[in-house]
Structures are given as structure tokens and as C-alpha cells.
């Protein structure tokens, strides 16, 4: 694993009432509700997307729950470009549970999943107007490496971000 840059703040601890685990089919309606709440005012993923993501990317589809209620999710996948690349496809945390370290810890678990596949520098795309997500990713050591114009259609630009290698976290995964 790459060297951990000690100047990068460590992850906030996951509050003890929260658990991160792999997503299962029964979680999908709740994942859809979290997505809808987290991205209100934006185009949402249709429910079939989450069904297909679970079918295809089950190992990298994680949820955060509190008292058996799904409050966040992340989908990490292995992309097949010229060579394999790890992608953080989607991250959502219900607004009632934001700013508690859930997004940071979900991201760290996704990074650990991808590192287990030999992919230590995941990439992701983010809406340039999503300042909350941009701050989170920058805090976690991601940097902008490009801009994808009209990535999701006319006027739907995205920033391409990549984890700086010196910021790769080396903590073992807590997900079974």
C-alpha cells in the first residue's frame, strides 16, 4: 500500500450507532430514498440502476445504517479503460445524517475495497456546483484532474477527481 501522508487529517471515527456493511437486495428501496433525499433538485438514479449495480458490483456496493435504517450508500467499481481503474460511482448520505463522518468512512471503505483489487488511486466525477461533495473529496485527498463537458448530457458538466497517491489510506476494511 502507498505511503500515508501524515499531513492529511485522519478520518473522523464512525459514530458507534452506525454500521457500514455490504448492501443487499432488501436495502435497495432505502438506498433509493437516501439518493432522493441527498440529491434533491437533481436528476436521480432510477431504481433499476441500483438493482443492476447490486447485481454487477455487489462487493463494492456498501451501505451505512443506524438502527437498521439505511442512511448512506456508496458504489465502488472496477472500470475497464485501457487498464483497470477504480471508480467511486456514487456516494449519498441522507441530509439528516450528514456531517457525522459517514461519507468519509463510506469512501474509505470503498477505497479499501478497490485497493484489495490492486487499484489504489480511485477516480470519481462530481457536479461542479455540488460544493458539499467537493469539500468532502478535497478533505479526503482527491484533486481535480480534468473537466468533462456535457458528461451527462447538455449542460451536465462534471469534474474528474483522483485520489492523490500520498493520501491513500491503509487502514484495513471493517466490512466483511
TrEMBL record:
Start and end residues of each N-acetyltransferase domain: 18-166
Pfam families: Acetyltransf_1
Superkingdom of the source species: Bacteria
Alphabetical list of InterPro entries matching this protein: Acyl_CoA_acyltransferase, GNAT_dom
Bilayer-spanning residue ranges: none
UniProt-recorded name of the protein: GNAT family N-acetyltransferase
Originating organism: Cryptosporangium minutisporangium
Amino acid at each position: 500500500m502507498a505511503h500515508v501522508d501524515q499531513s492529511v487529517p485522519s478520518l473522523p471515527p464512525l459514530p458507534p450507532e452506525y454500521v457500514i456493511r455490504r448492501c443487499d437486495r432488501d436495502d435497495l428501496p432505502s438506498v433509493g430514498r437516501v439518493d432522493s433525499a441527498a440529491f434533491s433538485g437533481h436528476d436521480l438514479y432510477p431504481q433499476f440502476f441500483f438493482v443492476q449495480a447490486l447485481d454487477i458490483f455487489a462487493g463494492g456496493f456498501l451501505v451505512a445504517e443506524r438502527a437498521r435504517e439505511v442512511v448512506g450508500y456508496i458504489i465502488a467499481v472496477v472500470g475497464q479503460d485501457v487498464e483497470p481503474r477504480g471508480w467511486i460511482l456514487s456516494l449519498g448520505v441522507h441530509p439528516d445524517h450528514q456531517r457525522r463522518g459517514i461519507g468519509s468512512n463510506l469512501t474509505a471503505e470503498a477505497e479499501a475495497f478497490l485497493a484489495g483489487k490492486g487499484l489504489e488511486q480511485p477516480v470519481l466525477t462530481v457536479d461542479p456546483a455540488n460544493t458539499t461533495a467537493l469539500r468532502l473529496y478535497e478533505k479526503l485527498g482527491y484533486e481535480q484532474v480534468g473537466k468533462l463537458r456535457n458528461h451527462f448530457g447538455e449542460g451536465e458538466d462534471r469534474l474528474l477527481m483522483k485520489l492523490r497517491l500520498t493520501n491513500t489510506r491503509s487502514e484495513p476494511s471493517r466490512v466483511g
